Amino acid sequence: MKVFSLALLTLLLAALWTGSQGVSLRSPYSTCCYKDMFIRKKILASNIKSYQKTPSHCSHRAVRVELLNGRKFCVDPEERWFQRYQQQKKSTSSST
């Protein structure tokens, strides 16, 4: 019983410490996009909430696009429609 209590206490303290340090137990690779995760069809600009480039340690260069409904997709940054979307966002933000 003492071993179980000690193990439970240790686990609880580790969880509290991890939470207070802001350390995520998720893999940094969870932000990467892999070959079968890419969407090929155009996403309407009005549906895009935000986008973020994948980190340099990822095996595929990609952009993670978040839609207004919260869904996330991987997009090839060289896709023509995405290039136009980025140019549109830059021109809109520079003119305001």
TrEMBL record:
Keywords: Cytokine, Secreted, Signal. Residues 29-89 form the Chemokine interleukin-8-like domain. One of its GO terms (molecular function) is chemokine activity. It is found in: Secreted. One of its GO terms (cellular component) is extracellular space. This is CCL13 protein. It comes from Dromas ardeola. One of its GO terms (biological process) is immune response. Residues 1-22 form the signal peptide. InterPro entries: Chemokine_b/g/d (IPR039809), Chemokine_IL8-like_dom (IPR001811), Interleukin_8-like_sf (IPR036048).
